[in-house]
Amino acid sequence: MSRRLQLHSRHHCQASRGKQEPEPEPLEPGRTGNRLATTIKRKQAQLQATLKEMGEEALEEQLQAAGEFPVTPAHRFATLIECTIPTGRPVLVFELSRPSPSTTSSQLAEMAQRWVSWGADALVVPTDAEVTSTGSADLLAVCRAVSVPVLQRDWILHPLQITDCKAAGAAGLLGIITQVSGRGTAVMSSYAAALGLDAPVEVCNRTDVQAMSQAGVGLFGVNLAVGLSLALPNFATDMAKGLLADLPFGAASLVGIRSFDEALKARLAGADAIFVKNELINPVLAERKPANPYQKYGMEGLIERLKDVTCGDD
Ligand SMILES: O=C(O)c1ccccc1NCC(=O)[C@H](O)[C@H](O)COP(=O)(O)O
């Protein structure tokens, strides 16, 4: 990677690509519909209920206390990226959720240990109530079980969620999205950074990248699933390539992928870290496996194959 990492700095060099006027771009096509709006409404309602129960004073105390004791060591995920870049391969981050409702948190923690022993560099544990009813317990168990960075995945709309993430022992979180949080995005990102957490900010277009760069964000997320509804060949990977090329000097990127092809394209586009999502992992873990090209790998094989595909030697 030619870009030098300056992930911890909130005010790193912003202009490496000359002065480009931000072009107004449409909202990301895959998320403009009802699904995102419904999800955000649901999440806001949950948060409002929690905040009401908590009361303003307790909230204030929790936010302040978290800020007084940042996590140590801080910025473990960003540091991992920084240390991995010179090796010429991306950091491989794997999504980890219960393969079946009967899986317990401690079984999940054991899975986490196995994945790490097979070469997973970091893990992501989803906690959104729509996908799991045991997210908080799972996050806690996995954070305790492994020494690699563990990131929480949720829709992050309020700083309280960031303090909960810290309390669970996670190294950071996915789910701060520019198109969702608007002007509040930079505040959420800097609050996470102040607690020593790494929170890649998800960007969808050049306007997002420029706004976040100006706000000092140094770690960016790209979700290739955005834009799915357009169903144009190569739309997602072309978009990712453009976005990664637009990142400011010193910034790092995490790109979410659902296939080997996407992993390879993400790497070729310059992704510093690759987030391997459940869409690629679940078929490998499924007990009764539908015929699919990945079933032959098993999780250990999947990790090994992804390392091969993304290391740049193929
Ligand atoms: O989901 C990704 O690919 C991703 C990549 C890099 C940073 C963050 C990412 N996701 C965080 C999110 O909160 C997702 O945008 C959200 O869960 C929706 O994901 P999906 O349903 O897979 O589009």
TrEMBL record:
Pathway: Amino-acid biosynthesis; L-tryptophan biosynthesis; L-tryptophan from chorismate: step 4/5. It catalyses: 1-(2-carboxyphenylamino)-1-deoxy-D-ribulose 5-phosphate + H(+) = (1S,2R)-1-C-(indol-3-yl)glycerol 3-phosphate + CO2 + H2O. Residues 40-280 form the Indole-3-glycerol phosphate synthase domain. GO terms for biological process: L-tryptophan biosynthetic process. Keywords: Amino-acid biosynthesis, Aromatic amino acid biosynthesis, Decarboxylase, Lyase, Tryptophan biosynthesis. SUPFAM superfamilies: Ribulose-phoshate binding barrel (SSF51366). It is an enzyme of class 4 (lyase). GO terms for molecular function: indole-3-glycerol-phosphate synthase activity; phosphoribosylanthranilate isomerase activity. InterPro entries: Aldolase_TIM, Indole-3-glycerol_P_synth, Indole-3-glycerol_P_synth_dom, RibuloseP-bd_barrel. The keyword Lyase applies. Residues 1-33 are annotated as: Disordered. The keyword Amino-acid biosynthesis applies. Its EC number is 4.1.1.48. Residues 1-14 have a biased composition (Basic residues). This is indole-3-glycerol-phosphate synthase. It comes from Apatococcus lobatus. The lineage of its organism: Eukaryota, Viridiplantae, Chlorophyta, core chlorophytes, Trebouxiophyceae.
